[in-house]
Structure formats: structure tokens, C-alpha cells
Amino acid sequence: MSHLTVRPAAGEYAPYYDLYIKNIPAGHDPLQQLHEQPLLLKELLADFTEEQGLLRYAPGKWSIKEMLVHMIDTERIFAYRALRIARGDQQPLPGFEQDDYVPASGADARPMASILHEYDTVRAATLSLFESFGPEAYERKGTASNSPTSVRALAYILPGHEAHHLHILQDRYLSLLVK
């Protein structure tokens, strides 16, 4: 059994992240899920128009483009946290306010192809980083957002966060497009 098929223990992450970690099936390697998710995302967004990328499922909610850029931003931040912790950095890492990032991203003004290209680039970098870590790196712990955080937990949180948003995409956004 791979060292990553063992779920992170409760003390390896803030309880809030259970929301994401539970999206990784028991015994499943989260890096495999990181490999698989781009295929699902591309399938869901096949033949999407620029106008559909601006769809919001309710007033005040993010557009599809904004949600995608949020996923990219979050992946970058969590991968950066994993890098720092894997390298033994014990400096506490700050949190970030997603609701400040989204308006500043300018996502709605970008072509969908540009966002998807950035997604692919970031995912390739994330996979390269996580696949470079040895088993001992996944055991290292640091502090992020004022909570203990292990590299293993981040390896689960990343695909779990995306799975959360893919579920929202399917249930709340795409259901509005079905006639």
C-alpha cells in the first residue's frame, strides 16, 4: 500500500478540511485523483461558450470562470505550503481570503481557453512537485492558517478541494444549462 493511501490523521490538518479530505475515497492515492481530475473537468466543460463561463447559479455567487480561477489560486497556495513544509520550513504560513482573491483575479474578462491553459500548467507543476517528495516529506508538519498541517494532508486537501468544486459545478451550474 502506498504511503499516500493512508489518510492523514486528525492532528495533521484543521478540522475544516475534513470537508475536502472526505472527497478522496478510502485507500485511493490522492495524486492519482490529481491526475484524473483534469479529464473530468474538460469533459464537463466541453463545448462551453464564453457566455456560459459567466454563469452564476445565484446572485452574488461566483461565475464558472471565477470558480475555476479560485481552484487554480487555491492549488498554487496549497502547493506552496506543501513545498515549504516538505523542505522543513517551520515558519507559520498565513491564510488567505478567497473572497478577496476572486474579484481581483479578473477571471470574467479572460477567455475560457486561457483559464484552462493556466489550470493545466498549474496542475502539471503541482504533480511534479508532489511526485518529487519522498515518503519522509509527506510526514513533515508545519503550520498554515494557524493550524498544524502535514504535507500528506495537503496532498489530500488539494484534490478534495477540486472534487468539492466539481460537485458544485455539476449540481448547481450545469443543472441550469440542461433543458
From TrEMBL:
Gene3D superfamilies recorded = dinb family like domain
- Pfam families xref list: DinB_2 (PF12867)
Which residue range or ranges hold the DinB-like domain? 33-168
InterPro entries reported for this sequence: DinB-like, DinB/YfiT-like
Superkingdom of the organism of origin? Bacteria
In Swiss-Prot or TrEMBL terms, this protein is called DinB family protein
The organism of origin for this protein: Hymenobacter wooponensis
Organismal lineage:
Bacteria, Pseudomonadati, Bacteroidota, Cytophagia, Cytophagales
